[in-house]
Amino acid sequence: FNTLHLNNNITHVSDFILMGLTDSEEIRLALFTLFLLMYLITVLGNAGMMLIICLDLQLYTPMYFFLIHLSFLDLSFSTAVTPKALNNLLTSNRYISYLNCFIQMNCFVFVGATECVLLSSMAYDPYVAICKPLHHPAIMSTRCCCSLVFRSFLIGFMDTFVNVLCLSKVHFCDSNVIYHFFCDAPPVLALSCTDTHDIEITISIFAGSTLVASLITISVSYVSILSTILKITSTSGKWKAFSTCSYSLGKDQVVSVFYSIVIPMLNPLIYSLQNKEVKNALSRVLQKRMSSKQLK
């Protein structure tokens, strides 16, 4: 493998080898087909969702404002990881440069941290809608929504900055074989010839703090929502309240930040494509397109 020799018998690895998921050519071909299909669905689902929200004025609400950023994050991360994984499955070239590996690792951290905080912001919207319905328009103003999204990206950037500082202190010696299908921090740090104990603790503290804070925010929001709904006496009122927050009650809400291919594909289905408002918006967009063609 390629290395740059430095002093004191220490080498700087210029590229890594991603071992992938299997050495079987038949299984690799099957995985390539599966992952390619998932990636295409991810791109079409998330890009389509962003387009529909941008084109339909009736979807200019806090919920869809958050969803368009969630789709953007899913699309960005999937594009950063999946094409290289597909290339490794289809060809014998498993090399990835140090720079690209570094970018993949930090992209994973940035998207993971940003989505964690963004999902907690998404939980705040139904909380306000149900627990403080009269104040919802005032509280969830455009300025507030922009601030919540900005906070999500800022925390993601801070976690990534810490990750960059920690990884810049890591040196690699003789091994450059990563037993993974993309560059994730744990398998990469395992190759280091320097002590990474303090680095791993620092990264874990920052990542864990973001995750725990988001989990607490989401939990408190939905406990408050459930408590408010249970106080409603009429069945129709309870059903209407549940439907208000159903878009963000998916099981994969928090776990989704840890997956690179499957959940970015499922997020548009979980949060949006099964929503009647989105279906109606899609119908309106298509009708406008057809009407404009007929006029021409």
UniProtKB/TrEMBL annotation:
Gene3D superfamilies: Rhodopsin 7-helix transmembrane proteins
Keyword Translocase tagged: no
Domain named G-protein coupled receptors family 1 profile: residues: 45-296
Spans through the membrane: 29-52, 64-83, 95-119, 211-233
Keywords attached to this entry: G-protein coupled receptor, Membrane, Receptor, Transducer, Transmembrane, Transmembrane helix
Full protein name: G-protein coupled receptors family 1 profile domain-containing protein
Membrane topology: Multi-pass membrane protein
Function as written in the Swiss-Prot or TrEMBL entry: Putative odorant or sperm cell receptor.
Xref: SUPFAM superfamilies: Family A G protein-coupled receptor-like
InterPro entries xrefs: GPCR_Rhodpsn, GPCR_Rhodpsn_7TM, Olfact_rcpt
Source species: Bos indicus x Bos taurus (Hybrid cattle)
Top-rank lineage group of the source organism: Eukaryota
